[in-house]
Design brief:
single chain, 176 residues, mainly alpha, 5 helices
């Protein structure tokens, strides 16, 4: 009974990880395709926006193939960072001098395990740093575009003015 449960648990875990992997691939592909849209990931500008409108003619099969190739390249670049969980730790660095007497001494399992954890942690930090730098470079334009925040402030201000006017009108009507 316990063996059967263990097998079902492993199958469920594998199926779940496959689903998560497929969703991550889909999301990456979708994000890469967003960069090829006329207005990128932001979408069409608001009617009152000062942003220039794009008039785009219909695209043909050759342009679609170029877009898909760019998208494929971008997704593969995203995958190259390997920033997820690493099952096997990176190999130990080789000593530069094989004649060194300390290089030939055996390392205790506890020290070796700690060294592997340290190398793995350093590798994860390096890959995370790479991802963060790439994300900053790709999304720098969003930090410099205040149009959406400006619009939200205007809407909030208009709502506050409307609330004040509603209160004044209600007060005026109840006073009569």
């Amino acid at each position: 009974m316990e063996v059967l449960y263990s097998q079902k648990y492993e199958e469920s875990k594998d199926n779940n990880s496959t689903t998560v992997h497929h969703k991550a691939l889909f999301d990456s592909l979708n994000a890469a395709l967003d960069n090829e849209r006329p207005y990128k990931e932001k979408g069409q500008p608001f009617p009152w926006s000062k942003q220039t409108r794009v008039v785009r003619k219909k695209i043909g099969k050759a342009e679609v193939d170029k877009i898909l190739q760019k998208t494929k390249t971008k997704v593969l670049d995203m995958c190259k960072t390997n920033a997820g969980t690493i099952i096997t730790p990176p190999p130990a660095p080789q000593t530069s001098n094989p004649d060194d007497p300390q290089a030939n001494q055996p390392v205790s399992p506890i020290v070796f395990e700690q060294q592997q954890k340290d190398r793995l942690t350093a590798l994860k930090e390096e890959r995370l740093g790479t991802l963060m730098v790439r994300d900053l470079e790709e999304n720098e334009h969003t930090w410099l575009d205040y149009e959406e925040e400006d619009t939200m402030v205007k809407f909030d201000l208009a709502d506050m003015i409307l609330d004040v006017l509603n209160a004044e009108v209600a007060q005026f009507l109840f006073a009569k």
